[in-house]
Amino acid sequence: MGGRDFYNDDDNSVIDKAGMALSHNPKGLLLPGVDLTTHHEAVRLCARDYLENHTFFNDLQYHNHLNHHLLAVFSMGASTKRLQEVFDINSSYQRPSLALASDVTITADNYTKYLSKEEYYPNYIAFYRRELAESNGDWNAVVSKYLFDPQVFPLAMSGLLHPFIQLGYGLEFKSEAIIACALAQASIHKKQFSHALDGETFDEICRGDEGNAAGLSLLDILDRMRNDSVTAAIAYDDDPYTEENRAHAQALAIKYAKLWAVESSESAVKEKSMEVMSVIALVYGSLTRPGYHPTLEFGIMHNLTSSYFLPIFLEALSLDNQVRLLHAYVVTFLYMFAAKGCPPLYIQPELTSTNTHSVEASELSGGNPWMDVFTKAIANNDMHVPKAVRALWRLSLLTAFPEQAKPIKGYELPPAINCLYLARITVDSINLPTRRDSVTDKMQLGTKDDASGWAHGMLAFDEFWTKQGRLL
């Protein structure tokens, strides 16, 4: 990798230059419409992103979503024309890739020396690509070694889980290049949590409350968090992430993550991962106060979109690391919930009234009722919408014919979520247009004035709804 070079749309040499590949048999979900032509186009455009763009599009570490958006719509059956449009929308505002720092060679002996230093992103990519190439195809071992390094792990779970998401795409599509980029992104990331995922604190979270080996359910935990004195100390601000509020949110996440237990067994991991995914979807779809238009919150949305990758990660990891990952993942969710002020849930009957595949006969135009949702998601210019739909789609498949876990007395399992209903709300509520900024000549996705964007803020407070809520 070097400084940015732009490549023509008919230049297929970028695939070899980037060493880019995507599996024809990924571990995720593919829809009809995916064929050799669209697969080749997805590979070519991912290769261009790899060669041309940095992992952050500004100096605040806002993340490059290009291959996230591209691969999500590709898996839903997007045409080659739409894949190119997605590339053009996203690439227009990216920062150029950096040249390799020639005075530094990152190795297995010194890789922690350069953590959180953006200038060494290309060097980290080179390092991780060497590690993957020398692993004799055992990429999972490389991922486990570096992801769970005590100094890297908190970075990988930071930034609204974007390094985790990027790594999930690499594992899903069995792409060495994307895995290397994800580990490199994690390695140069700033730390979001000052100590929740560090050393003894995280070990305590994983050990849990030894006085209650069964632990509390996530729904019970959310209820208790609302009534905690620390929650009462969280103050409304247009920016939810004031230093004081972040400290309160982290304290709550640590305290209550210790009360959620995961036994070290395959069955427990499976049940607990389903609980996490279902509760996140329930919260995502239940934050709208009665009388207001559907309100979908940006931070919780990232918990939802990242949950798509939980089954992929769990398949790649040892049992001990599966347990540790679930604990860390719950920390990130509880932190985000607390940062919004621990809002109450307003669960609409439609959200839990039917199974995830049901639909009124009058609505069927033949075939799978999800297809209309996928079509809208592919056409949507917001890069998060297709990812949210994919997460709901995966959850619907995992819960369509569940092996029902036997509820523990006093342990409140989440209800079955009508994921189709929630996916429809998403594609119908979020539809940000693209426009050019005359000053920067860059493509912008929406503005604060858009009535159809994600909600940003502290939904537990009246002030949020007074300022941002849209009445029906």
How would you describe the overall organization of this protein?
- The protein has 472 residues and is mostly helical.
- It has 2 domains: 13-187, no CATH class; 194-472, no CATH class.
- 50% of the residues lie in helices and 1% in strands.
- The protein is built from 22 helices and 2 strands.
- β1 (434-436) and β2 form a beta hairpin.
- α8 runs antiparallel to α9 (176-187).
- Residues 356-364 and 435-451 have low confidence and may be disordered.
In terms of structural class, how would the helical and strand content be classed? mainly alpha
Report the end-to-end length measured between terminal Cα atoms. Answer: 51 Å
Shape: globular
User: Regions with pLDDT < 50 over 5+ consecutive residues?
Assistant: 356-364, 435-451
Largest beta-sheet characterization: 2 strands, antiparallel
Strands of the biggest beta sheet: in what spatial order? Answer: 1-2
Number of helices: 22
The tally of structural domains comes to: 2
The quaternary state of the protein chains shown equals: single chain
Mean pLDDT: 90
Secondary-structure element sequence? HHHHHHHHHHHHHHHHHHHHHEEH
